[in-house]
Amino acid sequence: MKGQKSFSSLKDSCFDGEFINSLFAKRFDIDFNGKRNLYIVLGLLGDFDSIEYTQCLVPYLDKLSKSNIQLSVVGIGNNDSKEYFCNYTKLPESYLKLTEDLDIHNQLKLSKGLCLPINPVLNLMLMCMGINSPGTLKEVLRGYVGDNTASNIFDKEEKIYFTNNIAFKASMFNTFGHENALRPFELASLRLKNMIEVLANWNIYMPNHNYLTQRGGTFFIDENNHLLFSYYNKALLGFSKTMSKPLDYLDNLIKDLNSL
After folding, report:
1. What pTM value is reported for the model?
2. pLDDT value at position 10?
3. Which residue among 23, 95, 129, 243 is least enclosed by CB atoms within 10 Å?
């Protein structure tokens, strides 16, 4: 396949596309035959990465449909956490598949994160400080200082609500940076909103604390069962190899596939 070679350097997985397709088909009754499949495997639905990655994906849903790409998002949770997650991120529930165990994560050899023999919450806090979580502190800092290579998140007239009584207009970010790029404090504000949402509904989003540090992964398989792209997340706030443009891999895949 002509397009497959151009993505050979983007495959981190030791598995082939047929194995991954069969794994998801068996577990979630997904029909992969003759389809392009994008599998996004998340940790707990309340994980920072789970919410932020999904918020990046939602604006791409139409583009995925037009490119004949079937999206399947897998997260650790239950029906209650699914309802809250989809209401908050605006991801249609039909895209989200649930698992209450780590079977699929283990079969794909996804990282478990920091697993010291201590309370799982402490392991998560240590990862937040960058321990066994490469790139996390740098990514946290980017949220505060901005990034001229990344796009902005909020429209200037959009109101950002942290609580019912605390809100401000996104145009305030223009005081610190250019409105056509990611401005200082903009990404940090989004992450604060996400954190408030999770903490306010902690037991719903985090039904099993033993899985707090479980990381996820991304797999793209074409209609001929060729694995064209894979990425294994090993850190908090590291769901993409290019966090400034988290879905850059998807833009490149769509561009290449549509040119064949």
Report:
1. 0.93
2. 61
3. 129
